[in-house]
Amino acid sequence: MSTATDIDGNLDPVRPKKLKEEPVPPIPVVDESKSDLASTTYSHYRTGLSNHRTGLSEHRTQLSEYRTDLSTKRTRLSVNRTEMSMRRTGMSFQRTRMSADRTMMSVIRTALSLISFGFTIFQFFGKMREAEVIQSAHAARNFGITLVFIGIGLLLIGIVYHVQFMRGLRRTRTEMRAGTLIHGESGFPVSFSLVTALALLALGLFAVVSMMWRIGPMG
What we know:
mainly alpha
């Protein structure tokens, strides 16, 4: 059966041409008194019927091959769609990981603003008290320390949530990869935002210790 090539370089089945309708050969009228002539006439008639059935059978065979080729093509397309779906699902895990990193960075920015603002208030009013510009800076410095504690608490909550979420995401990805449901060739590195958050947490704790007990370069 004739085939064509599609845009992907695969053979694309071509539908067979419509079979031209041919009438069934009519039953011949013979003179039964002449047995030899009647036998020959009926033999030719049976040969015509056989040729007619053969033509129909060949056409049915071509249609069957065409349906088989169509089924093969649909199967190939289904495999390609499944492959693309697996790759899209694998990439969606990467997008989800990057989204979690962006959320962690938002928490870092908020916590950094609270910690730096609180530390600035603490140092500003402390210097004003040392210069005897104001008589008491107790309330303002307590407010600064409170802001630093809020920033550290927010950062702790964000780190815990991020770690739990990433562990669950990695576990789900590993299970789906083991079940050959997704492609997982791309790496799944450690979150840089988590490393940054841990460094900021250590800095915030050091700042609190320096502010409360006046030790270190920040005291």
